[in-house]
Design goal:
Bound molecules: iron/sulfur/oxygen hybrid cluster, iron/sulfur cluster
Structural class: alpha/beta
Number of helices: 20
Helix content: 40-55%
Low-confidence stretches: none
Radius of gyration: 23 Å
Largest sheet: 6 strands, parallel
Length: about 550
């Protein structure tokens, strides 16, 4: 009997799945608690879907609960079994109240399950991923589940800024309910996966609106990579609202703030530029945090994934918030819409300043608004042949040595190509001296992984400008490094937008069965990667 089963990210052991413990550091008891949390979340979603069918209102509080449950189970976010089981109990309690208001007749077992025996583990054993025996149905169900998890992450951030769309929650919940329905065929589930892509576009558009209306449109920005001599706080993850509150609370305290990983693009927003104690970015993508966090010396705040299990040498300086959790790391709760970061500030004041990792600057801030402002220049460069091809390399970074491919690929690209990036994948090449084409940098960074939406808008704009009837006729190729479930959302969104011939790497997701892979290859031309030389030839010609 396996201890656990998880294959939701690119680190799935042996390209198949983690069965003894997670490569990410997730223990079997945490994996099981997550399986149970997904099961009860499907259960409450079946109830809310029934409520909507009966024209009854589902309160935002219930939508938020479903969103947060999904987000909690994303890779490298929450390793705290007690917190995950607390969410299971809260979900069952909320569901019990909702059940009183619906017709229970047609509801599935998961909607009616209660925890009377408090025997979480034995239930978790039978409701995990492998509970679906047919490997193709399992593959499609998980593909959709991961797309929904990524959507939940983006919806959570939009909600934090006061933006919401009930239609997105209704879709997420009705889809979760459908994943309990054994009558759905592979064909039905394939269609549902594409519909998940449609809502993936919607949720990224909502978050884009939330971010830009709150913090302004990202603009071309030089971000400092060096350090100052003050004590400091490092903030990582994707939550801009957390950064805003942290900057407000650290103002005038003598404590500096640095971004890390996916928080780097915060430096591109006008609204954050007014804080002179936001010094710049420290470090690289998530998989280097065990050495970089040690050297940072100050307090560290993880607002979302990716969190690696903290090493003893700095664990007492790590704080979590939102969906993130790790046993014995202090967690900052939100109370009445506010987070009190004073424990971090007080700790930071007692810490030495960060050790300098590097000096210099990087340039970013090429979200859709900024790129549209440069449209004439870019169109001229394409028309004159100065830019021959755009290569979309948005996605994730990760720990696999094989990801060196992306650095080598970026270096080997001909000088008349431009990389369009977003997400932590950028750290594999954004610091390379790749130069520019008539003032247009050869790496155009749109922002976080959710800002892949900007890249889609840019592609659609180019299609319109060049009068093309198909987005695949543009001189754009897609070489996407994927790791966790937000990348699945982005992938499904691209498929929904009709983008074909996407290359996924460094490995094809473990959760794609041979038959599902075949469908993706035949209908969308999805492929993997091989060597840099072969792929340059294939993609660039
Ligand atoms: Fe990266 Fe982690 Fe943004 Fe992901 S930090 S890997 S796709 O969580 O979300 O790009
Ligand atoms: Fe393994 Fe990834 Fe699952 Fe962690 S999240 S247990 S590394 S497949």
């Amino acid at each position: 009997m396996e201890n656990m089963f998880c294959f939701q990210c690119s680190d799935a052991l042996g390209g198949k799945g983690c069965t003894k413990a997670g490569v990410c550091g997730k223990k079997p008891e945490v994996a099981k608690a997550q399986d149970l949390l997904i099961y009860v979340t499907k259960g409450i979603s079946a109830v809310t879907t029934q409520l909507r069918a009966e024209n009854k209102v589902v309160k935002p509080r219930v939508n938020n609960l479903v969103t947060m449950n999904l987000f909690t189970t994303i890779t490298n976010a929450n390793f705290d079994r007690a917190e995950i089981l607390r969410r299971v109990e809260q979900t069952l309690k909320t569901k019990a109240k909702l059940l009183a208001a619906v017709d229970e007749k047609n509801l599935p077992e998961a909607a009616l399950w209660t925890d009377e025996q408090k025997n979480f583990d034995s239930k978790a054993e039978v409701v995990g991923i492998l509970a679906t025996a047919n490997e193709d149905i399992r593959s499609l169900r998980e593909l959709i589940t991961y797309g929904l998890k990524g959507m939940a992450a983006y919806l959570y951030h939009a909600n934090a800024l006061g933006f919401d769309d009930e239609k997105i929650s209704a879709f997420m919940q009705s889809t979760l309910a459908k994943l309990l329905d054994d009558s759905l065929s592979g064909k039905d589930l394939t269609a549902l996966a594409l519909e998940t892509g449609k809502f993936g576009v919607d949720v990224m558009a909502l978050l884009d609106k939330a971010n830009t209306e709150t913090y302004g449109n990202p603009e071309i920005t030089k971000v400092n990579l060096g350090v100052r001599k003050n004590p400091a706080i490092l903030i990582s993850g994707h939550d801009l609202k957390d950064l805003e509150q942290l900057l407000e609370q650290t103002e005038g305290t003598g404590v500096d703030v640095y971004t890390n990983g996916e928080m780097l693009p915060a430096n591109y927003y006008p609204q954050f530029k007014k804080y002179s104690h936001l010094v710049g970015n420290y470090g690289n993508a998530w998989q280097l945090q065990q050495t970089e966090f040690e050297k940072f010396n100050g307090a560290i705040l993880l607002t979302t994934n990716c969190l690696m299990p903290p090493k003893k040498s700095y664990a007492d300086r790590v704080f979590t918030t939102g969906a993130v959790g790790f046993p014995n790391c202090k967690h900052i709760e939100e109370v009445d819409g506010k987070k009190d970061f004073s424990p971090l500030i007080e700790l930071a004041k007692k810490c030495p300043p960060p050790v300098e990792l590097e000096t210099g600057e990087i340039v970013g801030g090429f979200a859709h608004n900024q790129v549209f402002a440069l449209a004439d220049k870019i169109i001229d460069a394409v028309k004159s042949g100065a830019i021959k091809k755009f290569v979309v390399m948005a996605g994730c970074d990760g720990r696999a040595k094989s990801r060196q491919y992306y650095t080598d690929f970026a270096k080997a690209l001909p000088k008349d190509t431009v990389i369009l990036t977003a997400g932590c994948a950028k750290f594999k090449y954004i610091k390379l001296p790749l130069g520019d084409i008539g003032g247009i940098p050869r790496v155009i960074d749109a922002g976080q992984c959710n800002d892949s939406y900007s890249l889609a808008l840019i592609a659609l704009k180019l299609k319109e400008v060049f009068g093309l009837d198909d987005v695949n006729k543009l001189p754009i190729v897609y070489n996407i490094p994927a790791h966790e479930q937000k990348a699945v959302t982005v992938l499904l969104a691209l498929l929904y937008l009709g983008v074909k011939n996407i290359h996924l790497g460094p490995v094809l997701p473990a959760f794609l069965s041979p038959n599902v892979t075949k469908v993706l290859v035949e209908n969308f031309g999805i492929g993997g990667i091989s060597t840099v030389e072969k792929d340059i030839k294939l993609m660039i010609g």
